[in-house]
Each structure stands twice: as structure tokens, then as C-alpha cells.
Amino acid sequence: MSRFTLRSVAVVVALVPLLLAACVAPGEVEPAPSEAGDRVFPASYVPIRPRVLAAPRDPNGAPLPIFLNRHGGVYRAGDDDSARNRSSVLSSVGRSQATIGAYGGGDARWNQIVSCVGDQFARFNVTITDVEPASGPYVEAVFGGNGSELGMDNTGGVAPIDPTTCSVIHDAVVFIFTQALGGSAQVACEVAAQEIAHAFSLDHEFLCEDPMTYLDGCGSKTFQDVDAQCGEYSARDCICGRPSQNSVAVLTAKIGAAHTPGVPLPPLPPLPPPPSPADACGGVDYFGTCSAAGVLSWCQDGALLTRDCAASGNVCSWQSDTVGYNCLPAPPPPPADACGGLDYYGECTADGVLRWCQDGTLNTQDCAATGRMCAWQSDTIGYNCM
Q1: Which candidate, 196, 185, 165, 244, places its Cα nearest to that of 43?
Q2: Which of these, 182, 34, 27, lies nearest to 103 by C-alpha position?
Q3: What domains are defined for the chain?
Q4: What pLDDT digit, counting tens, does each position of 296-318 carry?
Q5: N or C: which end of the chain has fewer CB within 10 A?
Q6: Which residues are registered as beta bridge partners of 230?
Q7: Which DSSP category does 207 fall into?
């Protein structure tokens, strides 16, 4: 086979994945409904350091909108800003941009999801809507896609969470990959409840009846007013040093209880003490520092906080002028050079064998065995059997 033929084959092979991808574009068709509670893939979260708000949100103030987005969109990496389609999840997984296709399950199933999510959060100080608010802050839950758009195959959803101070991410963007969830409105609702609640600092819970769980086989799930252990498939410590997690209690503390307009609210808790002087953190500010061992240190609310990036497989590095240093995914290792430094133009060995590199593979052709000689052909081809 000549090198011209090899080149033509390479072009055809490169086009095949593009054609296949076009046939299964996200958002076109949702899977057929499965049984309620049949979660195909687990949902997840990524740890971030949320932006510091100029004024903390009052959980007893106006309800926080939660926008259920069925239309998809183009999302870019950055600090969470739902009104601008900025997502810290993309930053954490090393994607600068991702396009999520529209939800494809039809109006009837969509209305079931909206109603179900409304029931999940009915006791809390939020409003559920599938119409995008005119301004922020609001939490946006994006329904659609299958997770590959973020490089997260076999995942039902993902959201940001603050695992250190358990701050509320009021303008978070969370993702529910409905094409990976089997088509059940109930399952999509429960995954949405989990991802939205991650933005309010709820950890995974080792309690089957709660939507924060990975466990299955106990019917429909609702937020439980019980102290439960955290964990996925086994119990573990909860984030932020919590000894256990009560979903209802945490959500009530973070976003407030639902209340009727005109009805007096309970008194607000006392304000926290003013922050300690800056030197309480040994000169470290909010933007933080990275140690040689990969430990992130930063000052927040007058307390010096640390996170071992290396222990979680991440690297401590500068993220942005808003966040400062943070634990970020380690860059992928450089691809192995299977050709030993040889390029496409190739070389001729002393015994008349042509060697060249193509598509990362070392190729050889014995010119002498076919009665030809190995020599330079052109600046386009390089060496060839002539």
C-alpha cells in the first residue's frame, strides 16, 4: 500500500467518529421510561471554593429561585454565575466550554419532573420554575445530555459543593444527564433534588429513603428529617466536620423554611462576630497559597483553612482572579512517543527499509524487497520507496 493510499484511509477513519456523534447528538431522544427508583448511574459532585458574597443571603428573606432548564445551552468554565452560563464544574473537570442539548423527553414527562421537584422542595424557602429569571441570583438545573459533554460518562448528574465551609452557592449551575437516567421522570426528579441540594452543602447520604443517597430499592425518595450517616455505598465522615447529616435541618438552615407572605417570621439568629484581624491567618489572604507538598491554604472569615490537593489526586494551582489558588484537576500526562522521535517524513535505513510515523504509530516498508530504493520523494511526502 502506497503512502498516498495510507493517507486517504486515515482521513476516512477520522471522519467516522464525527458521523457517529452527529447521529446521537445530545437532547434529541430521551430513553424510554424505566421503573421509578431504577437509577442507571450515580450522581456526583465536585468540590469548589465558592465566591465570597458581598452580603450573605438571608434564608428568611425572599425565596431563592431554582430554574429548571429543559433547553440546554452553551456553558463556560468559571466561577458559578447561572445568569451568564458560567460553571465551576467545567473548571473542575478541565473543560473550557460544553454544550448541553435540550431535554428530549416530551412535555408530559417534563411537567411531571417540574411538579416532582416542586414537591421535593415545597417545605423550603425556594421557588421552582422552568422560566429563566430575569436576573440573579438563582440556581440553574440543566436537564439533558449524557455526561460525555463534560467527560463524565456513567454519571447521572454533577454539581458544585463547598466541602470546607459548607457555604451556599446561590448562583450554581448543576447538571442532570437525563439521557443516562433511563427516562423515568421520578428518577430525573430525585437526581435533580440531589444535585440542587449539593449547591446548598448537602453531602451524599447513607440513607436509602433520601434523594442524597446512592442506595436503591426502597421506593421514591424525599428529604428525611433524621440524623443519618454520610457516604455512597458505605458510611463515611460527612463534609465540613458534621458528625451526621439531617437533610431537612441543613436545608432549613441554609435556604430557610417556606413561609406565607404576611405571616411573621421567626427571629433571625444573632449575627456572627466580626472577622478576626488579617494576621490571624499568618498573613495569608483569601486568594491563598500553595505549599511545595500540594496543600492549599487560604483565609476565610478570619480562619486559616487548608485542603490537601495532592491527597485527592489534584494539584494546587491558580484558578482565577476571583477565587485565587484552588485544588484543580492534574493535567493529563503527555502522550507516549511510540515513534522514538521519528516524524511523518521518515527516514531510510542502511539496508533500504523506509521508516515513518503516522497517527502515533511507527510504520516500516522494505523497499529493497520489492526492487525499489528508499529515497527522498518531496517536501510533502518525505522519504518513500521509489
Answers
A1: 196
A2: 27
A3: 23-267 (3.40.390), 276-332 (no CATH), 335-385 (no CATH)
A4: 998 877 788 888 888 877 888 88
A5: N
A6: 205, 236
A7: -
pTM for the structure as a whole = 0.62
Taking Cα atoms as reference points, which of 248, 251, 201 lies closest to residue 228? 248
At 311 the three-state DSSP class reads helix
Strands across the sheet containing 86-87 = 86-87, 73-77, 97-100
Angle, CA 323 vertex, CA 71 and CA 143 arms, to 5°: 15
In the chain, where does DSSP find H-type helix? 3-23, 88-92, 107-120, 185-198, 247-255
Question: Cell for 67?
Answer: 430554574
N-terminal to C-terminal alpha carbon distance within the chain: 13
SS3 content of the chain, % helix, strand, coil (to 5): 20, 25, 50
Angstrom distance (rounded) from CA 183 to CA 186:
9
What is the rounded CA–CA span in Å between residue 333 and residue 127?
45
Dump pLDDT digits (tens) for 80-91. Answer: 999 999 999 998
Cell 432549613 locates to 252
Question: Are 88 and 78 within 8 A, CB to CB?
Answer: yes
Give the residue carrying C-alpha cell 429569571. Answer: 133
Provide the pLDDT confidence category of residue 264 given band limits of 50, 70 and 90: low
Phi and psi torsions of 370, nearest 5°: -110, 15
Type of residue at 307? R
Give the β-pairing of 353-358 and 86-87: unpaired
Q: How is residue 166 written as a grid cell?
A: 459548607
Q: Is the separation of the CB atoms in 87 and 195 below 8 Å?
A: no
Q: What cell does 37 get?
A: 427508583
pLDDT the model gives residue 285 = 85
Cα 355 to Cα 351: distance, rounded to the nearest angstrom? 11
Cα separation, 125 vs 115, in Å, equals: 16
Comparing CA positions, the residue from 276, 372, 290 lying closest to residue 324 is 290
DSSP code at position 200: T
Residue type, 329: P
